[in-house]
Amino acid sequence: MSSRLKRLELTWIGKEERPRLEPRILLEDEDLSYAKRVSANDIFDNRLIHGDNLLALKALEQEFAGEVKCVFIDPPYNTGSAFEQYDDGLEHSIWLSLMRDRLEVIHKLLAAEGSLWITIDDNEAHYLKVVCDEVFGRFNFVANAVWQKKYTVANDSKWLSESHDHVLIYAKSKETWRPYRLPRTEEMDARYRNPDNHPKGPWKATPIYAKRSGSEKEQAFSFTFKNGVVWSAPRGTSPRFPADKLRRLDANDEIWFGADGTATPARKTFLSELKIEGPPAPTVWLHSDVGNNHEAREESKSSNSEDPFATPKPEKLLKRILELATQPGDLVLDSFAGSGTTGAVAHKMRRRWIMIELGSHCETHIAPRLQRIVEGTDAIGISEAVGWKGGGGFRFLKLAPSLLEKDKWGNWIVSKQYKPEMLAEAMCKLEGFRYAPDREVFWNHGHSTERDFIYVTTQNLSPDQLRFISEQVGPERTLLICCGAFRGKPNLANLTLKKIPQAVLARCEWGRDDYSLNVTEQAPVVAVEEAKAEASSSDGAKTKAGGRRKKATPMQALPLFAGIDDASKSR
Ligand SMILES: C[S@@+](CC[C@H](N)C(=O)[O-])C[C@H]1O[C@@H](n2cnc3c(N)ncnc32)[C@H](O)[C@@H]1O
């Protein structure tokens, strides 16, 4: 038996198949990009990418590997699999493969001190947990927080009335990663008072003993305060402070003996001296603290009353996650952007962000929402709480077509849609160079180190041309030339020559735009309408009325990861 087979792992049909992704370049649509300066610390370098997230994540890999501080994803929950009359095993398999492929790139993008947060429900939560364990390492699992997405009970529930989602939390490296603390609330601060008008301000009485039976010496410890009160730690506890510290606190009037001087002595812990920000986050997230689905849909209606997005997350939920995982200026990524809540919240909290969305709502919902935020006219969600005034910007990007296409004889050629600068950028990406064309130096399209450069051209280069370039490059530098062809092979030590497209043909899969479904035709699956009706949205999500079971359709018909979020609408 091979050692692979001995490993504890989840297996599924198609698990071994791995996509060979083309690292595409991204093209800006300037009409949909938006920016406005309001203050000196506005952030402009945010990206909204319209396209399949697997290709888009791959497109980001070269520039952002190890850079992202927090990834939040809210993928389609695969609710279509909840129908008992269908064998949903294959369906699980597809979903798991799609998630695994995306999680693998996400893992590469995360910074060493980064973390991943995934909302999911019972349909796939436990399978997804195991897949995440495989990609991140089981040790890096941090917690499964429970989010109360709904606060009313569905009386028509067949089994239990579902009121929560899971939030799976992984660290890239749990050993070193620590979440930030929750901010202090007014309620917490209100527990600090100043009845004796102490110059250090409001305080709270805290015990001067700890709940642990200490050494014999600690047990025998006794202290006399300046008012004559003699104190020892109660049985089973031990003093928290040595005598000299107690003496100092006593001298500074930082011991409280109660209003009438008869209470057990306690330390005055001053609000102004608290070192910790707030408490650690609990693993149960109540809707009163982080919002619920109803609230999210109300936000969505205010954002787009004509066509509210069906399955948004509340802004407060994202605020909680970004507070725990990031600081201002950190980079946040959401590759299942939906209506753009993650970017909206990240922007208002002054984090940098990247969002990816395949559906056309990227243009119709996300871009306008973010434009209003940049303009400062958005009063939705957390705007008031964070005092949002507008400013900053984002670039709207889309995936470039595949670099190669087949000609009428079936040979791979460079796509006719590629202009020279697109070709140069794409080749830089494929060869691991940073695209940075030098306007003065025609052969410098990018670099991999300070001395190693790349030149991309479709020309057929002659020996004289090559010799000329070699002289320009000089003995201290090296140049990779990717060209249509070259004649002769002059012995030029500082040049490496590669032909396009031959040199890259075997690198990856070309001409494939859809990584959403790669399954067999015959797999039966329940239609989406039915998924909506069946899940009947315990949280009150919009579903089509009277949804009846439809005939099974081929797997390709299920728009699970295919850009429309119908499957997820059932939530
Ligand atoms: C549940 S929604 C996310 C909602 C989001 N959290 C919000 O607050 O609005 C899931 C989104 O993932 C998108 N999606 C599904 N497959 C995708 C893919 N392959 N690439 C990019 N986006 C995809 C869907 O179009 C849908 O908008």
Alpha-beta content class? alpha/beta
User: Approximately how much helix is present in the residues?
Assistant: 25-40%
Largest sheet: 11 strands, mixed
CATH hierarchy class name of the largest domain: Alpha Beta
CATH superfamily label of the largest domain: Vaccinia Virus protein VP39
CATH-scheme architecture of the largest domain: 3-Layer(aba) Sandwich
By CATH, the topology of the largest domain is: Rossmann fold
**How many structurally independent domains?**
3
* First-to-last CA distance: 43 Å
Report the C-alpha radius of gyration, rounded: 30 Å
The coarse silhouette is elongated
Beta content: 15-25%
Question: Which small-molecule species are bound to the chains here?
Answer: S-adenosylmethionine
User: Got a strand count?
Assistant: 29
Mean of residue pLDDT? Answer: 88
Describe what this molecule looks like in 3D.
The chain is α/β, with parallel strands linked by helices and 571 residues long. The protein is 27% helix and 21% strand. The protein contains 17 helices and 29 strands. The strands form eight sheets. Strands 1, 2, 3, 4, 5, 6, 7, 15, 16, 17 and 18 form an eleven-stranded mixed sheet that branches. Strands 21-22-23-25-27 form a five-stranded mixed sheet. It is elongated. The model is unreliable at 81-90, 517-559 and 562-570 (pLDDT under 50). Bound molecules: S-adenosylmethionine. S-adenosylmethionine is lined by residues 52-53, 74, 76, 309, 311-313, 336, 338-339, 341, 356-359, 516, 561, 563-565, 568. Residues 52-53, 74, 76, 309, 311-313, 336, 338-339, 341, 356-359, 516, 561, 563-565, 568 line the site of S-adenosylmethionine (SAM).
